[in-house]
Design a protein that fits this description.
Elements: E1 2-6, H1 8-14, E2 23-27, H2 31-36, E3 40-41, E4 48-50, E5 57-60, E6 62-66, E7 74-78, H3 84-89, E8 99-100, E9 106-107, H4 112-118, E10 120-121, H5 133-144, E11 149-150, H6 152-163, H7 172-183, H8 189-197, H9 201-204, H10 212-223, H11 228-236, H12 243-247, H13 251-275, H14 286-295, H15 302-316, H16 321-331, H17 336-342, H18 347-364
Parallel strand pairs: 2-5, 10-11
Antiparallel strand pairs: 1-2, 1-8, 3-4, 4-5, 6-7, 8-9
Helix pairs in contact: 5-7, 5-8, 10-11, 10-15, 11-13, 11-15, 13-15, 14-18, 15-16, 16-18
Domain Poly A polymerase head: 3-122
Domain tRNA nucleotidyltransferase/poly(A) polymerase RNA and SrmB- binding: 147-208
Protein name: CCA tRNA nucleotidyltransferase
């Protein structure tokens, strides 16, 4: 039985990047042998095991054969007769198809090390077009390794995946998984540039509007180290509402994506009023501030409101989150319970008096 480190850990070591999780390939073994040595099986579609002490993943070397459409349309074969080279040839990109032996020697039959030095993302072979997830992974790796070019022939295969309808078999959960990883890179916009370049964006995320304005806001979010929900909101701020159902993003991401456009609109109105002193109806001041806070449910969700402000500032650049959080703190000093008790339980009176108290607190903040 032979064991090799493969894939990302080897690639990142060659690039001088910090080591992440290690993936191992086992050659010359069977599921029965792995179980006898104390490994715990965890794989669904193919044999993957957890090491009894380190809990790292060890996969049996395997080959695959296309049996249907989509990324699930494969039959896998894993057994003692599958060589390391067989396993490497089924991978997506040459830079991910490098192995390292226990003694440190590289096994690189597909030229991945040379492509890493040349900063090129290149497909392993023609089977690239059999799995549409490889297109998403390529786009995500292009965002992570933003100084890498993409081989022209690899982009051609991506266009074939779109033209032949393979990308239409991608399920929303798989699309979101890759989007989430790509969004958290230092240059997330490149992922969407690649999807546009191969004609895939409208197919994997129908309704997503990708333009220079959206790209600039997302770039600012990445530069400022915003979290996934904030970056997702920046990505989706000009897109159709149905996109959220299509992507199946977590609720925290959906919430920010839903609220950000309204916040930006109110901030724009307030900014316009500040520049136009002759405006007949003031839209800046305590009443407007309270309306904005209420529209974002900021009084109950202050942490989320602060995250929204940071995202909005990536678009506008003049939001002043500290000032808004100070206003929110002032409005939250009102004891709604005490006001309700004094109002004698009349719902309409309670609502009006709580609002009046909050407006007074905001007025005092001016």
């Amino acid at each position: 039985m032979e064991v090799y480190i493969v894939g990302g850990a080897v690639r990142d070591d060659l690039l001088g990047l910090a080591a992440g999780d290690r993936d191992w390939v086992v050659v010359g073994a069977s599921p029965e042998i792995m179980a006898a040595r104390g490994f715990t099986p965890v794989g669904g579609d193919f044999p993957v095991f957890l090491h009894p002490r380190t809990h790292e993943e060890y996969a049996l070397a395997r080959t695959e054969r296309k049996s249907g459409r989509g990324y699930r349309g494969f039959v896998f074969h894993a057994g003692p007769d599958v060589s390391l080279e067989d396993d490497l040839r089924r991978r997506d990109l040459t830079v991910n198809a490098i192995a390292r032996a226990p003694g440190g020697a590289l096994i690189d039959p597909l030229g991945g090390a040379a492509d890493a030095r040349a900063r090129v993302l290149r497909h392993v072979g023609p089977a690239f077009v059999e799995d549409p997830v490889r297109l998403l992974r390529l786009a995500r790796f292009a965002a992570r390794f933003h100084d890498f070019s993409i081989a022209p022939e690899t982009l051609s295969l991506c266009r074939a995946l779109v033209r032949d309808g393979e990308v239409d078999a991608l399920v929303p959960e798989r699309v979101w998984q890759e989007f989430a990883k790509g969004l958290m890179t230092d240059h997330p916009g490149r992922m969407f540039d690649v999807l546009v370049a191969c004609g895939a964006l409208d197919r994997v995320a129908p309704g997503l509007v990708w333009n220079e304005d959206v790209a600039a806001g997302l770039a600012q979010g990445a530069a400022r180290g915003l979290d996934l929900a904030q970056r997702h909101a920046l990505l989706c701020r000009g897109s159709a509402s149905g996109l959220q159902d299509r992507l199946r993003a977590p609720s925290a991401c959906r919430d920010l994506a839903r609220l950000l456009p309204g916040l930006l609109a109110r901030l724009a109105a307030a900014g316009a009023a500040a520049r136009d002193a002759s405006a007949p109806t003031p839209v800046d001041g305590p009443a407007a501030w309270l309306a904005l806070l209420e529209s974002c449910d900021a009084l109950r969700r202050p942490e989320r409101f602060e995250a929204l402000l940071a995202a909005a500032d990536c678009v506008r650049g003049d939001v002043d989150p500290a000032a808004w959080m100070r206003r929110l703190a002032a409005a939250r000093t009102v004891d709604a319970g005490a006001v309700a008790r004094a109002a004698g339980g009349d719902p309409g009176r309670i609502r009006d008096e709580v609002r009046a108290a909050r407006l007074r607190a905001l007025q005092a903040d001016i």
